[in-house]
Every structure is written in structure tokens, then in C-alpha cells.
Amino acid sequence: MGSRTFDAKYALIGEDLIIKENVRIHLNQNNKIIDIEEINNVNNKSLLIPGFFNSHCHSGDFGLYNKFPSGLNLAQLVGDNSIKSNYLNTMTYNELSDNIFKFAKNGIKNNITLYCDFREGGIIGTQPYLDSVNMNLINFNFKQLNIDNINVTILSRPESLEEAKILSNNFGLGIRDIYYYPIDDLIEFVNIYATNNKPIQIHVSEDLEKRNAWLNDTGETDLIWAAKNLSPELLIHTNHAEQYEYQFLKEQNLPITICASSNNITKTKEIDWQGLQEIDFPIKLINLGSDNAMFSQNEIRNEIKNIQLKFNLDSTDLLKISMLPDKIPSLNLVHNIEIGKFYRGTFVNVKKSITNHNDVISHILD
Fold this sequence. Notes:
This protein is an alpha/beta fold. The protein is built from 14 helices and 15 strands.
């Protein structure tokens, strides 16, 4: 790929998503932004955004979307012997591969430019990503996947220490709730991936019963224990966490992912937004996720709408938590439109002038 330029009538620039008008973006041959130039009038009616960041999802159950009964709880939907686990355990390799790439293509359609995919099933569960290199469907590099300007961080779930040694060569580690593993195995998994400098992300405090069991066994909540002992770059769900735990995460500068729509479907507790606001939990540490593909087909607009309806967040904060993975170390080169960053962006058509972030929200949710 050679160097290239493109123009936008409006663009959201930098970590503050500053609105600039009549912009030309210059990329080098490695897709890195080398200049952002303000030019004379751009005739196209376009808004360039970094794109949405889906910070937590599971692409493998894409084929179950809207094919499960209503009224089921978390365990019945996604636990052991659940609708999801039975589906994953009986699908063919071709079905899995098809689900993964349909999910990615849906992301492109929904202005997703970056997502983190938790892949169940050990080596077999990640194989479509590796095999696709040979089919020239994707440009696979380390833990990043690129299909038409959509980037994926792949978090593997090893089923043994031997699998961990193999998977950590190419993928990050996505830990299912820590109660499912012996503590010694958890520590060893983390050591294997950390040695290969791979990212570690962990489910915590989604299931109240399992959270309480861990607390009774260890004297600490799963959230606090995982943050202290497993070196995660991101904690997923956290919806049963209490205010003192969020204070601890704030002090540790450790980001979280909120999957609000999933919490509604699985009938689990909503996150304590009021508690977050009372301790001034930094917006830059909050990310949104769509969770299981059976619930959402790689879409973040629904998460924005869910939060917008229930909580008093201004438009700038809504844009930041839906687009920028500011404090996730493995993504620090691709998180915004800024000189020196790898380009990550997508265009949204606009019908009227854009002067503030409220205008941006109205366009992207339209």
C-alpha cells in the first residue's frame, strides 16, 4: 500500500475529538497519519470519525442472533450447558468461520473500526483467523486483523497450559470468569501470555453468585483479586462491583467495559453509574461492549442509546466512551485520528452543518 490522502468536510480529531472543518488526512505507506491539513472548502458531505470501539464481544455465536427464547437468565443463556455453549460445542468449523467473518462485516456496516473478540474453544476457536491469512481474506499481523479498515484484537481462551503456550504466540488472553479456574492455573496462564507480551482481559463480577463464592473463599472480590494478581489491561462487565472497588480501579488507572444491553437481556444488575459519578470515575477508563453476538451483531449505537436514556452523560463523554480506548495499552497506537497514530476511521454522511458534539451524536444515531 502506497501513501494516500483523503478529504472530509468535518472530522473528529485527537483524543478530545475536536471538530475540524475541511480536512485533508495524509497517510504513509504503513497507514500511519503523517499530516492533518486544513484546506479550502471540501465539497463532499462527510463526517470522518475514528469509528466505534466495541471493547468486548464474542463473535462465535453470531448464528444464534434472535434465535433464543426470551425470559432466560445468565446461566441459561451463556453458562455451562446453556443455549450458547451447546451451540458452540456442536457447530462445524465452517459455521464458526462464517460467524466470525459475518460479525466483522456487520461491524463495518455499523461504523465499527475496532473491536476485541473473546474466542472460546481454545486452538480450534481461533483457527479461522489464522486460516484466513492463507485465503487472503484478511491482513493478519500479530494480534491485529484488518478487513477493509476494521481492526480486531483477538483474545484466546486456552483449555490447557499446553494450548496456552501455542495460542500466546499469536493472540491475547481472554479469561472467562476466574471462578472457573484453579488459582495456580490462572497465574500460569497469565505468566505464559505476559512472557510473550500479549494483552490480558478478564470477565469480573458479572454473576453475583460466583462473585460471592470467590469473596467467601479468598476474602477479596474477584475484581480486586484479578486486578492485583493477573495484570489485566481491561476488566469486563463489573456490574456487581461496589463503589470502593471502582475507587480502587480509578487509583490503578485500570479501564472497564460496560455491556449494558447484555445486562438487560441476561437479567443481571446494571452498573452503578451513580456510584461512578460520585467518585468522579474517569470517562477515559470507561468503554462499551456489545458482548455475545447472539445479543448484538457488532453494534455500539444501541449501547449509546441505552446509556443516553438512563444516565446524564453529555455528548462529548458519550462519544469518547464509544470511540476511544484511551487507557488500553495494546491499542495505544490506533485509538484516534492524530498525527503519529495508525489510521482508524470511517465516514458518516451528514445532512446539515456540524458545530458541536450534540450535532455529531444526532448524525451517528440517526
